[in-house]
Design a protein that fits this description.
QueA-like; Thrombin, subunit H; six-stranded antiparallel β-barrel; globular
Length: 373
């Protein structure tokens, strides 16, 4: 175990968020059945070892814990095939990962080019030899991309130029942006399985899935509703920053990435009603939790919200909206591991991770789930 520097309290030392993960514990593929994963239940009010169950047990677990009901809130953003391959004028290969959500593009006609549309965007560009600012790449579709400016950590400001429907173009030629730790190329099955069953086609813009939601089937949701657990949705376009490790030895010095959040009035109203009735709010995934707490941070209350959030949840943070969390298992030294530690306590979370490893749980995006109550 890494020993944190003495001058940094353990809760804020990055070295305190390290655990040993054997490579075989990383889930390279999803479970055979969408709801076929395991579920580790961590009770913050108990000293007992975490409970080892199945995800299909979720309705019964919640009914036992919250007999009066609770409100579940999920992220309905859609992963789109944001990774495309093209050519430079020299014939060299170009790989582009588009980072700007399609619904957030400011689209306008291209000057002097009838029928072509333009929009500035952010993306990651990879080439064998450095691509120059002002240089364009062509793709196997009516799509051109001009590199306008290079930024930090490989991010580039781009101009997209295309004809027709941009989402259709990416659906036709794009690849699903699987997490780097899967160490494989995407295949046709990822189009379905790296997507929640409730993803909104009008919210295509995430470059990573809200993975806690991958376990849900319509049947599980029906059983939840029948037991008094209503469902509401938010949108958070998951950005590439979700894979970025925290690099600061003192986690308080980390600069959090921005992500666009939308909390509709219907969801805000459902939260207010639940809170007024004394019913808990359960976030389905860290992105839903970030949406809700980011909304409250921005407004100081529960209300409709649309805008970016950079909320960074670390130990000592007081949760204003979220009472419980369904989540997957997160990477060492990640802001997500730090967030769940803020909710349940670092020692409890690391103990739970140790239990999960000993019981051979599967980790990360396609892995098993954890319920923190």
């Amino acid at each position: 175990m890494t020993i944190p520097p003495k001058h940094i309290p353990p809760e804020y030392a990055l070295a305190s968020y390290v655990y040993e993960l054997p490579p075989e514990r990383i889930a390279r593929r999803p479970a055979d059945a969408r709801d076929g994963s395991r579920l580790l239940v961590v009770d913050r009010g108990a000293e007992d070892s975490p409970e080892d169950l199945r995800f299909t047990d979720l309705p019964e677990i919640l009914a036992r814990r919250y007999p009066r009901g609770a409100l579940l809130i999920a992220n309905n953003s859609r992963v789109f095939p944001a990774r495309v391959f093209g050519r430079r004028h020299t014939g060299g290969r170009v790989e582009l990962l588009l980072l700007t959500p399609l619904p957030l593009l400011d689209v306008a006609p291209c000057p002097g080019e009838g029928g072509w549309l333009c929009a500035e965007a952010e993306g990651l560009v990879r080439t064998a030899k450095r691509m120059k600012e002002g240089e364009a790449a062509e793709f196997d579709a009516p799509l051109r991309v001009v590199l306008l400016e290079r930024g930090e950590y490989g991010r580039c400001r781009l101009r997209l130029e295309w004809q027709g429907d941009l989402q259709t173009i990416f659906n036709d030629i794009g690849h699903m942006p699987l997490p780097p730790y899967l160490e494989r190329e995407d295949d046709i099955s990822d189009r379905e399985r790296y997507q929640t069953t409730y993803a909104d086609a009008g919210k295509a813009g995430s470059v990573a899935a809200p993975t806690a939601g991958l376990h849900f089937t319509p049947e599980v949701r029906q059983r939840l509703a029948a037991k008094g657990f209503p469902w509401a949705e938010v949108t958070l376009y998951v950005g590439y920053g979700t894979f970025s490790p925290v690099r600061a030895g003192d986690i308080r010095e980390h600069k959090m990435h921005a992500e666009h959040v939308e909390v509709p009035e219907a969801t805000a109203s459902a939260i207010r009603e639940a809170k007024a009735a004394g019913l808990p709010v359960i976030a389905v995934g860290t992105t839903s939790a970030r949406s809700l707490e980011g909304m409250h941070q921005a407004l100081g209350e529960v209300a409709a919200f649309a805008g970016d959030t950079r909320i960074y949840i670390t130990p000592g943070y007081e949760f204003r909206v979220v009472d419980a969390l369904l989540t997957n298992f997160h990477l060492p030294e990640s802001s997500l591991l730090i967030m769940v530690s803020a909710l349940a306590g670092r020692a409890r979370i690391l103990h739970a991770y140790g239990v999960a490893l000993a019981r051979e749980y599967r980790f990360f995006s396609y892995g098993d789930a954890m319920l923190i109550v």
